[in-house]
Amino acid sequence: MPHNVSVSDETSDETPVCSAKGCRADAVWVLAWNNPKIHTPERRKTWLACEEHREHLSQFLGVRGFLKDVVALAEWRSADSAADR
């Protein structure tokens, strides 16, 4: 099972890595999710994914009904920066 890494947990000097267990590849996707049994509807947790693990992690979250959105990391950061202004 992947470890949960928030995009905001990464420092600006580090390249975010994939959340798949044992993977150290650069992340290029953000998988936004929540567990409706424990999170409010607007809450979003994030996993990061490389190209290779995007589909696997999406399916893992999707079959549980947790996956809410898949966004390119650059797009996610851009939206996050705009929200901070």
Characterization of this structure:
The structure is a single chain. With 85 residues, this protein is of the alpha+beta class. Helix content is 29%, strand content 19%. It contains two helices and three strands. The chain has helices at residues 51-63, 73-84; strands spanning 29-33, 45-49, 67-72.
Strand content: 15-25%
Q: Which consecutive residue ranges, at least 5 long each, have pLDDT under 50? A: none
- Give me the secondary-structure category: alpha+beta
Integer average pLDDT: 87
Strand order of the largest sheet: 2-1-3
Shape: flat
Rg for CA atoms: 12 Å
Cα separation of the termini: 35 Å
How much helical structure, as a percent, in the residues? 25-40%
- Count the helices. How many? 2
The count of strands amounts to: 3
Largest sheet properties: 3 strands, antiparallel
Q: H/E order of the elements?
A: EEHEH
Short description:
The protein is an alpha+beta fold and 85 residues long. The chain is built from two helices and three strands; from the N terminus they run ββαβα. The protein starts with 28 loop residues before the first strand and ends with a helix.
Provide the fold topology.
Layout: E1 29-33, E2 45-49, H1 51-63, E3 67-72, H2 73-84
List keywords for this structure.
2 helices, three-stranded antiparallel β-sheet, alpha+beta
